[in-house]
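Chain A, query sequence.
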Amino acid sequence: MSRTLPEDDLLRTYRATIRPLYAYVSRRVGGDHGLAEDLVQETWMRALDTWPSRGMPDEPLAWLITVARNTLVSHFRRLPPQPVDPATIDLQAAEISPDTPDAAAIVGWGLARLRRSHADLLEAHYFDQKPVRDIALERSMSERAVEGRLRRARAKLRQQLQRLVQPRATVPGRAGSRG
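Chain A, predicted structure.
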């Protein structure tokens, strides 16, 4: 059974959600505009397929972000990035910053392989730039507990990313460090 959603409601919802949804996706793909647009479009297509039969959710942006997150995970699971030069991403850094599309692809690939609880914490802290205090309040945890979980989540992400890192000596165009 299909229900028709009023076009005005859809347009109003689209206008209210498109910028925050695009920002959410764009941060997670390192500013790759083409990829962000494709993933946002895919997310909205799922909404347009689902909402007529199930109705528009009470919180459309929350629904869209959940679908976008799942779309991102699926995307990064399908397309493993190429092995990278260790110089392009600092796996020992306390903050793993996916500022470029290539780094975002690598980090996204790793996040897609983590338990959801680990990935959610890392995304909240690094992509959404939420301080530990806010994450702790949202999750009814102590700040110390969040810090510990972030530390463990970073370690798990590093383990995943280590699989992509190739030794410097094997990177084309670079001389090995041994002489």
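The chain has two domains: 8-78, 86-168. Confidence is low (pLDDT under 50) at residues 173-179.
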